[in-house]
Specification:
This protein has 186 residues and is an alpha/beta fold. The chain has a single domain, classed as P-loop containing nucleotide triphosphate hydrolases (Rossmann fold, 3-Layer(aba) Sandwich). It is built from 6 helices and 7 strands, in the order E-E-H-E-E-H-E-H-E-H-H-E-H. It has a 7-stranded mixed beta sheet, with helices on both faces. It is globular, with a radius of gyration of 15 Å. It starts with a strand and ends in a 10-residue tail after the last helix.
Amino acid sequence: MAERRFRRPGPTPRARVALAGNPNVGKSSLCNQLTGGHQHVANWPGKTVERHVGVCHLGGVDIEVVDLPGTYSLAGTSPEELVAAEALTDPDLDAVVVVLDSTNLERNLYLATQVAELGRPMVVVLNLTDAAARDGFLLDDRALATALGAPVVRTVARTGVGLDDLRSVLAGLVGTGLGTRGEVPA
């Protein structure tokens, strides 16, 4: 499996978290924001065709953040989709951050439900919320959290909006194992 590390970790990370989502939803921007990495970010599907790995420190836990190629399904057949599916079913993975494009939830929810069915801890990121608000989309975080059984965080990864909330949820998720399927934030 192709893997490129763009930030050398210090101590061995205690947790491994994957960023999953459809192509072009902001996974690489989110990874850069979380890890301080400088991955090239482009506005076309298929930009990330291998895993990229960085490390961040949250709540006393070193977290290895794996930026996966975009995929629409865990049953995809392209090389990028196979890389993503293999990583998401890896038993060494501690949690998944499912990144959704807030302007196109219908297309993005299929993968989110598949990841939720894996039963591992996850958090759902509603990214591009600035564009969704501008375009008049109404987002119901609570209904989405209930449907997927996972905390929901709103972000604009490009600018860093919502990243503190995501860091807080992620620290609790990997530090305590909270956020597994069926647990909904208050």
